[in-house]
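DM from R.C. (forwarded with permission)

"hey, sorry to bug you on a friday — could you get me a structure for this? deadline for the figure draft is monday and I only need the backbone to look sensible"
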Amino acid sequence: MSTNILGTKLSINGSIILAVFCCILIFIIANALISNNGKKEVRIDNLHYIIDSAHDIDINQALNFETKDWQTNDTDIYSPAMSDDIHWLKFTIQGREVLGPKLLEIDNPFLNRVHVWFVQKNKILSHLSTGDEQPFSERPILHENFVFSVPATTDTIDVYVSAYSTGAIRLPIYLWPEKLYLSYETKSAITMGVFIGLMLAMGICSLFYFVATKALPFLIYSGYVVSLVLTITTLFGLTFRYLWPESTLFQQDSLALFASCLLCLSTIFCDQLLKVKLYSSLLSRLLRAIATIFIIGAGVSFFIPLPLFINAFLSMTLVSGLVVFLTGIWLWKKGSIIAHYYTLTWAMLYLLGLTVVLDNLNIVSFSLSPTHFLMLGATIETIFLALILIISHNKKKQAELIEQTKLLDIERQSRNTAREVLELQKTATEELEYKVQERTLELEITLRELSEKNQELEKKNTLDSLTGIRNRSYFDKKYQAELRRSKREQTQLSIVMLDIDHFKSVNDIHGHLMGDECIKVVANILKQSLKRLSDDVCRYGGEEFAMILPSTDLEGALALVEKIRIEISNTEVVLNEASVKVTISAGIGTATADVTMNEKSILALADQQLYKAKNAGRNQTIGSYLS
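My reply, with the result:
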């Protein structure tokens, strides 16, 4: 067992080393493919700006502004605070005939409206407009960023840009030689394709793993990866270009939707992967509440102003990230190995996020752009989360294997003990076997005789001594049994109550012996009339008889009883040269038993019908269904 544990630890450490190596390799490849040095060389940094808070400045006014009216941008990228203002930018570029065709790029796909004017000597050469409020097909150049062709001229060109966004305004502007731009875009497309392919492959593999193992964390991880891909590709503007190019309204809210789903799934993933509920049900409920808030936020984002949503979203992101990070540290101290690796992964993700913030603040400079840095960090995080998920699943399987091994050892010991006990018992059994066989034979003979006596006694106890048919005691048991069968099989049960008409007069005129003979004759006719083994007739008491007819409807019971009534009325009872004829009255109750019905209902109905027959003049049969 210790060898297996050591092998598992070595396997985990080897997996971590391999994952670190893969991440370093990804970083090197990404840095080589999308080096940003060349991009910084083409960035426009001599920007001047005017903030239009009243939304009333047009291009003619902008052309007439003096130099003192324009403010100088002190940073490499124009990135003011989020507001509802229109931002006007102005800069100067040279003609493109010397260096060949040029393209102007605004590297921010999330701008509601963008207008670009190319002006030469206060004369507008061209005016181009675009933005998220327009379908993708209406862009001057079909690209996820806003790209414009610079007019061909050898003279200086003044460029005026008017930009408006309900979200954050960030305007990195680049002037590209066309060939250099195509080369850069090719590398960027390759990198993005590798990223999307890797992410989707991991998501699909995780989904297949969920189908195979039914382990919920794999399904959550698969959804997390898909949300991550949609969030980053939306940040790059690829989803608007390829998935919903005509849906401008959805484009403006899509990032909020995908980011909310991403953070919701990451919080649920933390709760499921670390099995937080085993350590603290309160903390688990807190994580689920945070996930619920993100889901609600995803729906609310379509109906509230974007700046308000962004502020609330960033606050919740900070809170959720801190809760998840502290949860990992707490469980790490509790001894959870998975929490150990999970916390390190989140620490690395926060470190990458910090570098993006530092780059945006121009405190440090990296060769990768912030969005590419985010993509790289997401790739590394996804690889490590997949590794942690696999480690967690393997640990679970290892624990199950160890538990099974313990159970097998216990079972093996139990079998050995049982074998020893059996050997001892075998010795004792062999000594007693002969005596037991003798006693068993004697006992079997005695039991057989006793069983025969019991059966004979039981049969006598259920037989009427006068008529030889079953008695009232048997009827009560039989009635209960057939009532249950009617409930179970939902078949109709008919009960018949019969009474010899004017029986007291027979006793008074001809004596009790003649009365007894009449009872025996009637009982014999009733017995002979029943052809089915399931049917029974019993002497209910005195001159009264009862018949049980299972699986018989009212019409069948009436036909049978009428036949019996006619036969009895035509039969002459003879005793010592005296003879007499008797008739019977019969009442039939029929019903299909159910759980709501009183057990005595059918019997009571048959008794009521019997009295109706007597009151109607006797020598007749009356039946009814139970209503």
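R.C.: lifesaver. The first strand starts at residue 48 and ends at 52.
me: no worries. The two ends are 73 Å apart (CA to CA).
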